[in-house]
Amino acid sequence: MTLNGSEYVLQPVNPAPNLNTWVYWVLTRQGGTLTLYRDGVQIGQRADLPATAAANISGYIADQANGLYYLNGGVDDVAIYASALTPDTIASHYHTAQYGPAQS
Asked: For all residues of the chain together, what is the average pLDDT?
């Protein structure tokens, strides 16, 4: 993510392999905090972003701005929300993607 001309990178605490498997990634920004989720579970966070800086959403998905690190795979169903999703909502979205909507 780039804010005020500075790039902020967030790496997972315990990276898991992503080869030959579907993975549900979510990145949220709430003020000065950037949080990374994999399959509905938080796996990384940093809280040193400038809280009032506007986000530039014209950046890259699955690639760093310098082009050195890119995804050698596919990206599907990208969504951008006006506010950060809650951890419960992220877990619910993942569960629905894996198992379908809850039975009523």
From this structure: 83
